[in-house]
Every structure is written in C-alpha cells, then in structure tokens.
Amino acid sequence: MRLKVILSFLAIQIVSFAIWQGVHALGKTDVTIQPVSGNYRSEVNHQAAKAPEQPFSNVKFTMRTENKDFYTLNSDKKHEIILVLEKFPEEQISTLQNIILDYDPDAHRGLGGKGIIIVRAVNIDPAEFYGVMIHEIGHDVDLGYLNETSTKKISAFNDGKKPVYESDPSLSFYRICWENNKNFKKDVGNQDFVSGYAMTDPFEDFAETYAYYVLHNKDFKSKTQNSEKLLAKFNYMKNTVFVGKEFNTGEYLTENLTRQPWDVTKLSYNLAAFLAS
C-alpha cells in the first residue's frame, strides 16, 4: 500500500530536513533476517588536512536509531551504498540530497520523494534492501530529476496537493496506462504492469518499473512480448530515463510471461552480478 506522508517524526528532530513532503512509502514486512548494517555509531573525521571531495558529495548519509536519534552513517555502509549509486547516471543522483537508514524495526521498508529516500536497515535481506533503495531512487528520479519546464498548464495528475504540470516529462510515462491518479485507461489490464503494486497509482507504477528495468532487465524485455504498454514503459525507461543504457540483469523468460509479482523489490536477483555489470 502506498502512503502519502509528511515525515513529522523526523522533522521534529532534524529541522534541516525541511524537504520532507510528498513522500511515497513501501509497506512493512514480517521477515526476520539479520540487520544489514552493524553498530550504531557516528563517524568523525579527525584529519587536519582538507580531505578530497568524496563521490556523491551532494548526498547526506544519515542513520536513525531505534531510539530515534540521528548520526552520520558509518563509512563501511556508506561505501557499500555508493557502489550501488555508481551504477546510475550521475545526473539522476545529482538531485538526491538525503539517504537515511532507519533502524526502527517497525518502520516502513522504504520512503521516497523529491531529494530524499529512507530505507529500513533491520529485518531485511541485503538484496531486498537494495531493491527497496532502487525503488525509492525511482521516486526521486520521477519527482526530482524529471522536472517540469513550465507551470502554465496543469494536468489531470497531482502528487498530493502539488499539481503535475503538462510540461513534466513523467506524464509521458503515466499516460501509457493512466487517465489520472486513480483511473486506468479503458484498454489497460494486469499484463500492462510489472507488479501488482505498480497498479496502485502512477507514481508507484513509475518506481516499480524503474526498479524492474534496473534489476530484472531481461525479464522485463521478455514480458514486453505480451503487452504493447509494457513495451512502451520499457522504451521510456531506456530512452528517456537511462538514455539508451540497459542493464545485464535477470534472465530472459520463455514461459509464465503473464505472471505478475506483487512487489518487484521482493523478487530475488544476484546483487553481486548487478554490481559487476
């Protein structure tokens, strides 16, 4: 279930996070796997000399403990996340300002919006953790990277109270299957979406399709055989979002082409193979 929330529980404690608006959420899970990251700690750089600029210096890496305290993310986990971020076009990640790992076991698996993503870092398998992260990056690409060029004309879509303008590049994706935030086009069916969760609204459709394109590219391509709309979504991701780049991920399917998962981030994949691609 997608939730539109204003993350007041964080804004109360970190006033600098004034950007917390219009955030999209992935639901909770019941899995009981060991935490992705280790001890809660803050890292301090004691070097006297000015350190060289780090990759993704535009991104603030933060952790939130179960006690709702905030610290700078430790270097090992930060490095691990950066290895994933390096797989994406730099211009996409340039709009991302905050990555927060939430160590509250009752938190949603993921939250994402313009400039910010939050991923629960406990009770989640490492591959699923990064699947959720990539889904949330998809929200930032949709709402932050693909910006409108004019606010003269309002479309039939809106992100909460914020209208989506006709100049927004994401509209070309939304309109493949959607009339507006709630209604499909008349000729749309289940086979036209990468997951059941993608059918909940245009924003989740975008984020799920983004994650499927990145982590299950060959699977995605095979399913376009049965749906012109899925083919249009694949081509949108390839040509508009990734400017021709495809990922050597997943396996090309020859059967069960109409079988649809509920949640792309739950699908198994080879994380090492993705990082090596």
Shape type? globular
- What number is the mean pLDDT? 83
Domain module tally = 2
Beta-strand fraction estimate: 5-15%
What order do the SSEs take from the amino end to the carboxyl end, as H and E? EHEEEHHEEEHEEHHHHH
Number of discrete helical segments: 9
Question: Over the alpha carbons, how many angstroms does the gyration radius reach?
Answer: 19 Å
Which stretches of 5+ consecutive residues score pLDDT under 50?
1-21, 29-52
**How would you characterize the largest beta sheet?**
7 strands, mixed
What structural class do the secondary elements suggest? alpha+beta
Q: What is the terminal-to-terminal distance?
A: 32 Å
Q: How many beta strands in the DSSP annotation? A: 9
Question: Biggest sheet, strands in spatial order?
Answer: 1-2-6-7-5-3-4
Measured as a percent range, the helix fraction is 25-40%
Structure description:
It is a single chain. The protein has 277 residues and is α+β, with helices and mostly antiparallel strands. It has 2 domains: 115 residues, no CATH class; 123 residues, no CATH class. The chain is 31% helix and 14% strand. It has 9 helices and 9 strands. The strands form 2 sheets. Strands 1-2-6-7-5-3-4 form a 7-stranded mixed sheet, with helices on one face. Strand 8 and strand 9 form a beta hairpin. The longest helix has 20 residues. It is globular, with a radius of gyration of 19 Å. The N terminus is likely disordered.
